[in-house]
Amino acid sequence: MVKKKQSARGKRYSSTERVNILSFVEQYNAKNGRGGAAAASRKYGISQLTIGNWLKAAGAPSPKRKKSSVDINKTLARLGQLHKAMDKAETELNELRKEYAVLKSAL
Questions:
Q1: Which residues have C-beta within 8 Å of that of residue 34, sequence separation ≥ 6?
Q2: Residue 16 and residue 57: Cα distance in Å, rounded?
Q3: What DSSP designation does 85 have?
């Protein structure tokens, strides 16, 4: 049994295949905003890194993330307030549970 030596390089794609895949990526991004490379990776079985390299070589702009309208400082301050309120409520609940247990055991 003779084993075939595997090539040190991966699969090569023709220009037509690349154009078709990059076209799919562009159409997907136009419809959904982003995620075309991941969708193409799943559909065609090609790594996202390879598709990303093709996009860079083609000079395609990368899809932009939506900017968040959330003020991070306000959000963090509110999270801190909520954490303190929850801590206070948990402490009060534990005290009520202790009192409940004492009264229940007295029955």
A1: 63, 64, 65
A2: 15
A3: H
